[in-house]
Amino acid sequence: MANITLVDDDENIVASVSLALESHGHKVTAYHDGASGLEALENTPPDLAILDVKMPRMDGMEVLRRLRQTSNLPVIMLTSKDEEIDEILGFNLGADDYMHKPFSQRLLIERVKALLRRAGVEGLDMAASDSANEAGKAIKRGQLSMDPARHECTWDGKPVKLTVTEFLLLQALAQRPGFVKSRDNLMDAAYDDQVYVDDRTIDSHVKRMRKKFRMVDPEFDAIETLYGVGYRYRES
C-alpha cells in the first residue's frame, strides 16, 4: 500500500514496527542511524518516514531539519523522551505527527493510516468522495494559488514547499477568506480522529508556514492571528 522508511537504532523497535506495518501491506525499509537514513530519504523518497529522535551519527531532529530543506515528505517522529520541548521542536521543524515510546503497534498503524490518507497516498472510500472532491479543488486567492491534486502551492508565482499538515491548514483557511477558524476547526481540517494535538501544535505549524511564505515575500501577512479566537486568511 505504501513505501515507508523507518529510521531507528533500536533493533527491537525496528523488528516489531516493520512486522506490524508489513502485516498491513506496507513495504518497509529500515536504517539504524540518522546519516544513512537521511541519505536514503533523499535518494529514494518513500511515501512516509518514521524517525526516532535519539540515534547515532545524526539524531532524528537533525535528519528532519535537513530533510525539510528539500522535501515535504510526511514524517512521524518517535521519542523515548517524555518532554514537551522535544515535541514542540519537532513540530517547529516540520514533523507531521509525534509518538512517545512505548506505544502500541495498533496506535502507530492508525497514525500511519491517517497521515497517508491526509497525504493522498491511500484511496478514500465512497462515503468520503464528496468531501474529497471539494477539498481537491484548486484555490486562487490573490497572490496565493493551491493545487491539492498536485500538492503545489505558489505565492505570486513562486513555489512554497509545504508539508502535508501545513498544506491542509492553509487550505482550510484559504477556502473561506475573512472567516475565522478556531484551533479546533483547524485540528479537524488537518488531522483525523485518531490523532490528538493541542493548540500549541497548530500554532507551531502556522508559525512555520508563515516563515516559508516570508522567504519568498518578506511582506507576507495573509494569515492573521486573532488572539484567543483562532486564525483567518486575509485576502488582499
Structure, described:
The radius of gyration is 18 Å and the shape is globular. It has nine helices and eleven strands. The chain is 42% helix and 19% strand. The longest helix is centred in the C-terminal third of the chain and has 18 residues, at 199-216. Helix 4 runs parallel beside helix 9 (199-216) and helix 7 crosses helix 9. Helix 1 (11-23) links the parallel strand 1 and strand 2. The relative contact order is 0.11. The strands form three sheets. Strands 2-1-3-4-5 form a five-stranded parallel sheet, with helices on both faces. Strands 6-7-8-9 form a four-stranded antiparallel sheet, with helices on one face. It is an alpha/beta fold.
What shape does the CA trace take? Answer: globular
Q: List the strand order in the largest sheet.
A: 2-1-3-4-5
The level of helicity is 40-55%
**How many H/I helical runs?**
9
Number of DSSP strand runs: 11
Q: What does the average pLDDT come to? A: 86
Main sheet properties: 5 strands, parallel
Structural class call reads alpha/beta
Output the helix-strand order. EHEHEHEHEHHEEEEHHHEE
Relative strand content: 15-25%
Termini separation comes to 42 Å
Unreliable stretches? 123-134
Rg from C-alpha positions?
18 Å
Which secondary structure elements does this structure contain, and how are they paired or packed?
Layout: E1 3-7, H1 11-23, E2 27-31, H2 34-43, E3 48-52, H3 60-67, E4 75-79, H4 84-93, E5 97-100, H5 105-119, H6 129-135, E6 139-141, E7 144-147, E8 152-155, E9 158-159, H7 164-174, H8 183-190, H9 199-216, E10 223-226, E11 230-233
Parallel strand pairs: 1-2, 1-3, 3-4, 4-5
Antiparallel strand pairs: 6-7, 7-8, 8-9, 10-11
Helix pairs in contact: 1-5, 2-3, 4-9, 7-8, 7-9
